[in-house]
Amino acid sequence: MLHRLVVGGKMVTAFEFWQMTPGQVWWLVEDMMPQSVIQKPKELKQLYDEVKARQAKEKAAQDD
Predict the structure, then answer these.
(1) What is the pLDDT of residues 8-22, one digit of tens each?
(2) Which of 3, 9, 16, 39 could cross-link 43 (Cys pair, CB 3.0–4.6 Å)?
């Protein structure tokens, strides 16, 4: 799937794709994504905190 996205999207050639490390492929994909799709670390922290709070509520409800 990544091959189809990166090579099919004409970001790199097939030869270049197979020479890349997995990290390089993801850097390329992230670079081509619109900024609105990429979440900032602060937003991720907020999302993580919300998930943890919800899990704590659910655990408290199960204990009652």
Answers:
(1) 877 899 999 999 998
(2) 39
pTM of the model: 0.48
Yes or no: say if 3 and 16 are a contact pair by the CB < 8 Å rule.
Answer: no
Residue with tokens 């799709």: 37
Task: Give the position of tokens 């994909």.
Answer: 29
- 6: exposed, middle or buried (C-beta count within 10 Å: 0-12, 13-18, 19+)? buried
Q: Residue 47 contacts by C-beta under 8 Å, 6 or more apart in sequence? A: 39
Of 13, 8, 3, 6, residue with least CA distance to 28: 6
